[in-house]
Amino acid sequence: MASITLDKVGKIYAGGTRAVGDVSIDIADGEFIVLVGPSGCGKSTLLRMVAGLEAISEGTVRIGNRVVNDIEPADRDIAMVFQNYALYPHMSVRQNLAYGLKNRRTPRAEIERRVAQAAAILQIGPFLDRKPRALSGGQRQRVAMGRAIVREPAAFLFDEPLSNLDAKLRVTMRLEIKELQRRLRTTSIYVTHDQLEAMTLADRLVVLNAGRIEQIGTPLEVYRKPASTFVAGFIGSPAMNLISSRAVPHLPAAAQAGTIGIRPEDLSVAPDGPLEMEVLAVEELGAQRLVHGQTGGERLTVAMPSDAPLSDTLRLTYRPGSLHLFHPETGRRID
Amino acid sequence: MIENRPGLTLLAHLTLMAGVVIVALPVWVAFVASTHTATDFMSGTIPLWPGPHLVENYARMLDTGVSTSGTPPVGTMMLNSLVMALLIACGKIAISITSAFAIVYFRFPLRTLAFWCIFITLMLPVEVRIVPTFQVVADLGMLNSYAGLTIPLIASATATFLFRQVFLTIPDELTEAARIDGAGPMKFFRDILLPLSRTNIAALFVILFIYGWNQYLWPLLITTSSDYYTIVAGIKRMADAVDGLPQWHLVMATAMLAMLPPVAVVIGMQRLFVKGLVETEK
Ligand SMILES: Nc1ncnc2c1ncn2[C@@H]1O[C@H](COP(=O)(O)OP(=O)(O)OP(=O)(O)O)[C@@H](O)[C@H]1O
Ligand SMILES: [Mg+2]
Question: ABC transporter domain location, by residue (chain A) (predicted)?
Answer without folding.
Answer: 4-235
